[in-house]
Amino acid sequence: MIDPLVTTYRAREAQYAALRDAALAHTTRLIGEAGLKIHNITGRLKRADSLADKLRRKPGRYRSLEDVTDLVAVRVITYFESDVAAVSRLLEAHHEINWEHSVDKSMMHDPDRFGYMGVHYVVKVPPEVDQFIPHVTEPPQHYEVQIRSILQHAWAEIEHDLGYKNREAVPREVQRRFYRLAGLLEMADEEFMALDRLSRDYAATLPERVQSEPDSVFIDAQSIKHLLDVSPVRDLDEAVAAALGVPLLTRWPDPERPQRLAALLHYVGVHSVGGLLGELRRNTGGILTFATRLLPRLPEAWLPAGGARPGTGLVNHALLRACANPSLDPQEIITALDMSGVLSTRQMVDVVLDTYAEISGEVKVDARHS
């Protein structure tokens, strides 16, 4: 026999689906406006057969659909456990929380606690969401918001797939392994948070360290990202762009470019910021001459962008070092930067070597020519 609540739910399923979509959009907007970096936000609508199973397992507990608090749920997956608290504070500030049906599992202090730590809120439908729900006699009054870190989510999904709902469901011989795994995941979450803090601290101190002790700063994506905006790297880029009569694309949308530039510099033997800055200051004229001779011969590699990309001076510096050192191959740089266009990589290497021979006055044929 079908429970009357299941029948009612099926009749109103479109209304609950509208609530899911509106709640998801509302939560996404709140988190975006707060500037929080979140891994994923999804919405879920409880299946009618899942509701029927829940009603069978707990007969007499639910007298109306309003008593079932998880028909609609929004799930927020954060990168770090610390972000769970930030999202929680945001939701508490913008929603009326039903504390009787909400749970913060991070407040469970049992040292051998079983399961994952996360936050489940049951919130009253706010006006910003209510306006997008079809108006009926008995509209939904609440929905659930689940907040977990990626590792907490991984635990919950695996635990659910194994069918273990609580401590008593787990055979004694596997309980110890569950506790060990829970501890490992908690430690991993803490280590990821520590790495995030170290990364942010490193970025915050970069400007001062580059200024006061550049030889101690390693060439990496973060240091290159900083250098692209300051002298002499920025000055060299502007000089190349001016010589070519094109703009410097200071807002070029390529977040991976600092990482690729760092890899190129390592390839040609430049590993410290101090070493790089010294070389740029000593060889600015040569780099500029090389760039203004080379780039007009390879318009396919850069003109489609509409100007010179940030770091073009570093690219030409790396090409110069590769040309000057027979053990290095300019092809590695061209391939890494995906510079090939109409011309093949081999043809571009020949142009690079010819340009280098021209400005250096060499007449012998480089063995790296095709």
UniProtKB/TrEMBL annotation:
Q: Which SUPFAM superfamilies match?
A: Nucleotidyltransferase
Q: Which UniProt keywords apply?
A: Kinase, Transferase
**Domain spans labelled RelA/SpoT:** 43-170
Give the species this sequence originates from: Deinococcus radiopugnans ATCC 19172
* Record Pfam families: RelA_SpoT
- What CDD domains does the database record attribute to this sequence? NT_Rel-Spo_like (cd05399)
Q: Which domain of life is it from?
A: Bacteria
Q: Which InterPro entries does the UniProt record give? A: NT_sf, RelA_SpoT
Name the UniProt record assigns to this protein: GTP pyrophosphokinase family protein
> A Gene Ontology MF term for this entry?
kinase activity
Biological process terms from the Gene Ontology for this record are: guanosine tetraphosphate metabolic process
